[in-house]
Design goal:
mainly beta; 36 strands; 41% strand; 23-stranded mixed sheet
């Protein structure tokens, strides 16, 4: 079969694998590479949009290397969209509805993947370069955002309200704004079992992790083994008085059983940070290493347990019980008494 032809292969399970031609041009998909504009495309070429229309549940759409321009591409539920050798996408993707969708191996040029109101969507091994937002996940459930690279995304990178039973793991953020921004409502049916782990943040302009707001509900939120350094924080937002120079902020007032454990943050050479870790609601802050923040940790609610952390150069104090509510503070160290934590390694997926 010639290089320009489409491949439609049947797998043993009866699902299809679509192998589409790079730089294909259609009414809604034109190549990002100027050199390929105007090139005649064989009539049997399957474009990304066409493959999505033809895909059946369980199909894999395989994308070869190339540059692709799309416009709000709707990804078919229960499919795998995969670029095993990498491919660059200019344009936004949208995923809605139930069932598993996997988006893997792409570079998005200043564009967004919106998985709001979806179920069991995975975005993995992708790169997002530039733009204001990379992944939107309002009211998504069962999302897995894993081993992606984000560079110079200036707004809220991974952002949304009402996430539920989802994991954000092994992602690297370089020179981004607000890296992980999750908002919740006073809704006990959302905000459950969120895991944020093994992510690396460098050159952050606002906060690595911001979970809130006041009055919101979360349950069993786990913030574990994340690593943040070399902040480029701009201090308060325009017109605000509170500093945004915070490493890990988890402040839903009705948060239940939050665990913040094994995280690392060092403010960097640009000056003292404001708060290393802040927590509202009940939960545990343990075994973290925080350096060069005015406060190592600040707790606002009741039912906290802050123990066995290392807070180095916390000039205003290692732990502040802001509202003087009931909780436990014990066994924290004020000096550099243990080795700095290494950057966490990514975990191989799928298992």
């Amino acid at each position: 079969m010639g290089c320009g032809a489409a491949l439609l292969l049947a797998s043993a399970a009866g699902a299809n694998i679509f192998d589409i031609r790079s730089n294909a041009r259609t009414a809604t998909s034109v190549p990002a590479s100027p050199a390929s504009l105007g090139v005649a495309v064989a009539v049997d070429t399957v474009t990304i949009e066409e493959a999505m229309k033809r895909a059946r549940p369980g199909d894999t759409v395989t994308i070869p290397p190339g540059n692709y321009r799309i416009s709000n591409l709707a990804v078919t539920p229960n499919t795998i969209l995969y670029a095993p050798q990498g491919a660059t996408i200019t344009g936004d993707m949208v995923v809605r509805g139930p069932k598993t969708v996997i988006i893997r191996g792409f570079t998005f040029a200043a564009r967004t993947v919106d998985i709001s109101n979806s179920q069991s969507v995975t975005i993995g091994d992708c790169a997002f370069d530039g733009g204001m937002a990379a992944i939107k996940l309002d009211d998504a459930s069962g999302a897995l955002i894993i081993n992606n690279d984000f560079h110079a995304v200036t707004g809220a990178v991974i952002t949304g309200s009402g996430l539920d039973r989802s994991t954000i793991s092994g992602n690297h953020f370089v020179d981004c704004g607000l890296c992980i921004n999750l908002d919740f409502n006073d809704d006990t049916a959302r905000g459950r079992d969120i895991v944020i782990e093994r992510n690396i943040f460098t050159g952050t302009a606002r906060m690595p992790v911001d979970v809130g707001p006041l009055g919101a509900y979360t349950e069993n939120l786990l913030l574990r083994d994340n690593w943040a350094a070399d902040f480029k924080n701009r201090e308060p937002d325009p017109g605000a008085t509170a500093s945004t120079f915070v490493a890990y902020s988890v402040v839903p007032t009705r948060g239940v059983n939050t665990v913040i454990k094994g995280n690392y943050a060092i403010a960097g050479c640009r000056g003292q940070g404001a708060i290393g870790i802040e927590l509202d609601g009940s939960g545990e802050i343990a075994s973290n290493y925080i350096q060069d923040f005015s406060y190592g940790a600040v707790v606002y609610g009741a039912g906290f347990n802050v123990h066995e952390n290392t807070f180095v150069n916390a000039t205003q104090g290692p732990v502040l019980n802001y509202a003087k509510r009931s909780g436990r503070i014990a066994g924290n160290r004020a000096g550099d008494q243990k080795p700095k934590m290494a950057r966490p390694e990514r975990r191989i997926w799928p298992p």
